[in-house]
Amino acid sequence: MKKSLIYFIECYFLGTRIPLRIRNTFRTRDKIFYKEVNLQPNQLDARVSSGFGNHGNFPFEYEKRIDYIKFWEKRYSDDIRFTLERAEEIMNHKFTIFEQILEFKEEIDWHKDPLTGKSWSQRFYRKIDYSSRRKLSDIKYSWELNKHLHFVTLGKAYYYTKDNRYVEEFVKQVSSWIKQNPLEVGINWMGNIQIAQRIISWIISYHLFRDSSYFQIRGFEDFLKSIYYQTKILFNKRHISNNNHRIAAICAIVIVGIVFPEFKMFSRWVNQGFKELKETLKEQVFEDGVHKEQTTSYQKAVIEFLLLTYLIAERNKIDIPGDVVKILHKMVNHFSYLLTPDNKIPIVGDNSNERGYMLSETVDFWSAETILCTGAIIFDDPYLKKKDIHYTAENFWLLGIEEYRKWHGILPLRDGLKESKDFGVGGHFVIRNNWGKKADYLFTRCGEFGFNETCAHSHCDLLSIILYIAGQPILVDSGVFRYNTSLEERNYYRRINAHNTVQIDSEEQCDMKGMFNCTSKISKAGYQEFQDNYFKGYLRTKSGIKHIREISLIDRGHWAVLDTIENETSSDNGIHTIKWFFNISPYLKVIAERGKKTLHIRNDDIDICLKPSIDTNAYCEIQQRYISPTYGKKEKISMVCFSLKSKLPTNAKFEFIQSERLCL
């Protein structure tokens, strides 16, 4: 019986710890590896110094290092300082994982859970329970450390200083990780997107450390074998999930095939990889550039994977299918219109802070600047150069100095640039009065609920609104606190009351039966009309009641939301319970004036009147609840809830008026 079959039987059926002899057999396979790269072991040291894997063509050549550092010190001094501070923490094995501090006195335990202090079992990865009530904890916390995004920080610190301490720590951590993570054993072989992120982090780090003789002698061989085997595993399981994980996997494999043409298996597959990527993007992205998973966080990650793949392929003169380029351009254009007055992407659907790359420790996760700058340059699209968008530190690591000059040579086009935009196929709609920092802005979603049979990352946010007035966030989205805690906590952030829309008879927009399962009885929504300052859409609940929402930008600082609730069945004479939810920004307080229906939403910079026109039997209450602006972080907010018991049809109007205007 072959050893690999023994391995599979022990792992899958018994779920036991893997015997060392089998683990090592499966982990090294030196003969296969050296045959693949057509080298002998004693030839590797010479090859790394002579150009092995030097096809990334990243724009931080060591020959120009001094010039680059002078450029950075003048423009990105904060990024240098923060990188070096963060690198020292990494040297001391101190990590911040989603607001949690994780420290190791000696060797890093790559399976440790920051929340419980315990370690995940080392079994065949498919036998590890990470989703039931018996699970150890939220596995994303352990996965986050094992993406090795911090390797890039060490690499940048070495590039800035040439301090060999950073190289030694990098080699030590790589060696430790390989030792603790035999192939397909443990939690770090589960998610395709996590494996892809780790591979990309290793590739970028390799190009930052590759000139180090210490790395060439002490770390290169094990590093190279591991990245080869990680990619091979990812290659074999890339089709498991048809979502953002598949796109991430294909991109990572293509990048490996380009950067390491010595890996014949992957270099031969690059063209086929682009074909698979084209087919996958056509399945997952609407014609107008909206990602079908209906989550801006994961669309951001997908765009980053695609941009990095595009840049590496282009620098190596590899043909990229026109459809891939076209879809990527549309996705970036979509993001350019979603841009809020504070130059961020609105939170829609699930968020787990996934990144295609992380090249700067100072860039806000929700910032769209790096994506829009990169898009404007590679697509030569001046419409993507929106007002107040800057060339970030991440842009430099992606594009370099020459592209910085090109960016400043692009004249932003204003003629033909719309303030408002409908992405009707994907179901995203934006109304704004201008592109300035003090703009009024509204986002709403009205279309397909989610992607695939599970709608895994969608929320009950159809016809919900995200609202800014005078550049200040007024109504906000719930985000996601954690995935793998309890179903109740998971649904706390997915339900209707976590969003700014209407609930009828306590029905949700879908049945949330699992952590990533919203499969049955999904509400249907569509839009009827869109103009520069007006939107009209509808939603049919699972029981057949129709909610029509009309949104109007009446004037600067003055918005109106009109909701009509009706039953298309004429025989319905029953009483229905209708609730309107408005989740207020954590930066604002809600004040109810005695004897008046009007509420004031205010801080030191702005005062907004929320003026309802609703049946006199309705009542209003202000509740406290939580939102999560980033994964693992909670913020307390005020939620305004209007409740009404009424026959149908009925309607209600809510005006949001900046109080420099008359609000009676």
User: What spatial form do the alpha-carbon principal axes imply?
Assistant: globular
Shape-level CATH architecture of the largest domain: Distorted Sandwich
Number of domains: 3
Q: In what order do the strands lie side by side in the largest sheet?
A: 9-10-11-12-19-16-15-14
Q: Find the structural class using helix and strand composition.
A: alpha+beta
**Which topology of the largest domain does CATH recognise?**
Beta-galactosidase, Chain A, domain 5
Mean pLDDT: 89
The whole-angstrom Rg is 26 Å
Task: Identify the CATH class of the largest domain.
Answer: Mainly Beta
**DSSP, total strands:** 19
* Beta-strand fraction estimate: 15-25%
Percent helix range: 25-40%
State the helix count. Answer: 21
User: Could you give a short account of the major beta sheet?
Assistant: 8 strands, antiparallel
- What is the terminal separation in angstroms? 84 Å
Pick out the low-confidence regions: 1-27
